Amino acid sequence: MSAKQFFNVASVCNFEPARGLKQKIISDAVVCMDVLEHIFIEDITNVLGELFSLATKLLVVNVACYKAAALLPNGDNAHITVRSPDWWKGAIDIVSANYPNVQVLLICSTQFNKGVVYEPYKFKDWMLSESFEVQSRFQKFSMT
Q1: Which residue has better confidence, 116 or 142?
Q2: Which one in 59, 86, 96, 142 has a CA-CA gap of 20 to 30 Å to 53?
Q3: What pLDDT score does 138 carry?
Q4: In the 8-state DSSP scheme, what is residue 64?
Q5: Helix or strand holding residue 110 (H, E)
Q6: What is the pLDDT of residue 36?
Q7: Are 119 and 129 in contact (CB under 8 A)?
Q8: pLDDT reading at 17 higher than 90
Q9: Contact at 8 Å (CB) between 56 and 71?
Q10: Handedness of CA 119, 14, 38, 71 (dihedral sign)
């Protein structure tokens, strides 16, 4: 089944630079599968920001949280940023604050066929919830 059939949408745009598909289009939904674990850690927030900036309604991310079987030509593991599901959740939460109306679905694969699926959320809804607390950076603190 194609992505177009699976998501029941009128059109699908593929962005895969390795295959020469380099056109980025702002869309209702952006799906990112098996990408982020291949990005250097210092570039993660920029890539997440770009994914969010292309999604007007929904961002679906699947990220592997385990080492790949494949090695790069230099001998490094192909999954160069292996982190826990909670680490990925935190990284995405931070960037989502800049895109409060985009719903996020995060799926973290802990093994090839196992993983953690976080409850979909919009930062806006989270921020408006009764359990959300804001701490001012100017709030007084004490050092004892």
Answers
A1: 116
A2: 86
A3: 53
A4: E
A5: strand 103-111
A6: 96
A7: no
A8: no
A9: no
A10: positive
Distances (CA, A) of 58 to 9, 44, 47, 85, 103: 13, 19, 16, 20, 5
- Cβ atoms of residues 102 and 54 within 8 Å: no
- This prediction has a pTM of 0.83
The CA distance from 124 to 114, in Å, is: 30
Strand partners, 106: 61
Is the confidence at residue 139, as pLDDT, over 60? no
73-111 pLDDT tens trace: 999 999 999 999 999 999 999 999 999 999 999 999 999
- CA-to-CA distance for 51 and 9, rounded, in angstroms? 19
Backbone φ, ψ for residue 53 (5° rounding): -65, -20
Decide: helix, strand or coil at residue 15. coil
**3-state DSSP assignment of residue 1:** coil
What is the secondary structure of 113-135 as a DSSP string? TEEEEPPPEEHHHHHHSTT----
Strand extents, DSSP E, 24-86: 27-33, 55-64
Rounded CA-CA distance 52/60 in Å is 10
